[in-house]
């Protein structure tokens, strides 16, 4: 099978000039790759992350790399904890005040690379505080983003949420995380039924173990086919683009395997 970089060509990405796009989780590897692609293709971005240093590095890269006469107007950055509804709401409202509209959103803020971020345990030993933390940082945080975005996005807008392959198959020792990813699929499908009246599309991308610094290698996934963050970002971009106008309510698995 060809890589996503071949399947999703640069011609797909040529329709973002002047579009206002939100990116939640912009400093994580997949969010960073998505942000850079959008900026290269002239989108106006409102990015957020809890990592101030990561946001500053994105801004420095933008200023140093891309020729743009109105750089400050093409990207605004905000430190946001997406597990706090008031911070998410303020970020989205400020984006509308700055740019006057929202055309799309990429929600990459969930804890994709979960290794070491919380203790794993069989369901019989799962602690209440671990359950609450995982649900808050993944499922509830994405709900806050979707809720705020759907209130202000333009008719015909597009939203992409980055999930994980656990939305298609569970795994031992990760009951809470699996619930988040299965729950995200259900939430998106419900939101699609509501948003279709405004021709708003919502999809999700479910990577396997992308090659990022906070995920260890897995024997269950062929290393050669393990997707790079940049490849996943191109699929996110395709789903955000007008070229995917007939695609909605779908979760796309990205794991380098020819079939499961």
Please give the structural blueprint.
Layout: H1 4-7, E1 20-24, H2 29-40, E2 44-49, H3 52-65, H4 71-74, E3 75-79, H5 85-99, E4 104-107, H6 128-152, E5 158-162, H7 175-195, E6 201-207, H8 229-240, E7 251-254
Parallel strand pairs: 1-2, 1-4, 2-3, 4-5, 5-6, 6-7
In short:
Belongs to the short-chain dehydrogenases/reductases (SDR) family. With 260 residues, this protein is of the alpha/beta class.
The number of E-state strands comes to 7
Summarize the biggest pleated sheet.
Answer: 7 strands, parallel
Task: Enter the CATH topology name.
Answer: Rossmann fold
Task: Write the CATH homologous superfamily.
Answer: NAD(P)-binding Rossmann-like Domain
Count of folded domains = 1
Which structural category fits the helices and strands?
alpha/beta
What is the C-alpha radius of gyration, as a whole number of Å?
Answer: 17 Å
- Range of helix content: 40-55%
Q: Tell me the series of helices and strands, N- to C-terminal.
A: HEHEHHEHEHEHEHE
What is the overall silhouette?
globular
Q: Can you count the helices?
A: 8
């Amino acid at each position: 099978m060809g890589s996503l970089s071949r399947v999703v060509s640069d011609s797909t990405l040529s329709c973002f000039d002047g579009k206002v796009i939100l990116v939640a989780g912009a400093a994580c590897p997949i969010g960073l790759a998505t942000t850079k692609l959008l900026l290269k293709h002239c989108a106006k971005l409102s990015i957020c992350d809890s990592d101030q240093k990561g946001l500053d590095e994105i801004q420095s890269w933008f200023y140093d790399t891309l020729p743009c006469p109105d750089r400050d107007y093409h990207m605004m950055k905000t430190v946001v904890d997406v597990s706090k509804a008031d911070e998410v709401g303020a970020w989205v409202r400020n984006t509308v005040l700055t740019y006057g509209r929202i055309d799309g959103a990429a929600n990459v803020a969930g804890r994709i690379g979960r290794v070491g971020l919380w203790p794993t345990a069989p369901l019989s030993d799962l602690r209440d505080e671990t359950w609450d933390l995982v649900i808050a940082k993944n499922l509830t945080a994405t709900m806050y983003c979707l809720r705020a975005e759907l209130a202000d996005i333009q008719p015909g807008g597009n939203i992409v949420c980055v999930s994980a392959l656990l939305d298609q198959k569970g795994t031992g020792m990760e009951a809470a995380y699996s619930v988040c990813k299965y729950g995200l699929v259900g939430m998106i499908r419900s939101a699609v039924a509501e948003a279709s009246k405004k021709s708003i599309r919502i999809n999700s991308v479910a990577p396997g173990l992308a090659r990022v610094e906070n995920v260890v290698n897995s024997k269950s996934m062929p290393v050669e086919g393990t997707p790079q963050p940049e490849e996943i970002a191109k699929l996110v971009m395709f789903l955000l683009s007008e070229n995917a106008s007939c695609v909605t309510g779908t979760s796309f698995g990205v794991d380098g395997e020819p079939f499961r």
